[in-house]
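Good day; I would like, with your permission, to put a structural problem before you. A protein sequence and the structure tokens that stand for its backbone fold form the material at issue. The record follows directly beneath this note:
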Amino acid sequence: MRYQTSSADLKNENKKAVKAAGDASYREAFLAESSEHILRLAAKISGRILTKSDDEWSIALMATSEALDHYDEEKGDFWSYAAVVIKSRLFNLYRSNKRSEGEISVSPSVFEGEVEEDDPELSMKLELQDRMVSEDTAENSSLKEEILALTEELEEFHISFFDLAECSPRSQKTKQGCAEVIASFFLPPPLVELMRERGFLPAKELKERSGQTVKFLDKFRKYLITSALILDGDYPGLSEYVACMKPGK
């Protein structure tokens, strides 16, 4: 289920939630219909890609059912309320599971702030999730391996893989600017190895090559580093997400 956010759709979901709260058979159908959306919410809150084999999935499903029991239509939209309940239950999971500190990267939204269901900065994260939860294909397995390998490489720059989604350019102008900077990475002599040696963005060299300001380079630093590493490395699956940044395009 791909959740829509128009006023009519929100009201329809609210009505469904109210009905599901008082009808056991309808509740089961509602939860089944909403399963993909629940998984996406859990992934967004946890800050990592999830499947239905993860603990977060079962906890998020139970939290949604719990939200149905306490939902008041007069106080707001159901999914906004459900997101808060899911976040609370996942927080309890991570707080009680000491091992999680070394095993998973938890989104700051678990611990503070509100869950924005329409946050555009998570589009790439959720697109990757959609590809990987549908089927455990060889292609998806390869993509997971790429993500793990890139995550290790990004640790040298103190960057999380999903910073790419959070720091990506939005406007056509900034996209074009980033494309020019990334293309300049690969002009002779290429700068990616120099960046790896230094452990930070070669801003001085990129400024001279691309003509972009230091302020621009600093603003999109994480995106530029991640994109350059993807295009320079053995990441055929991930390179699709920055294909427009490839030199010559």
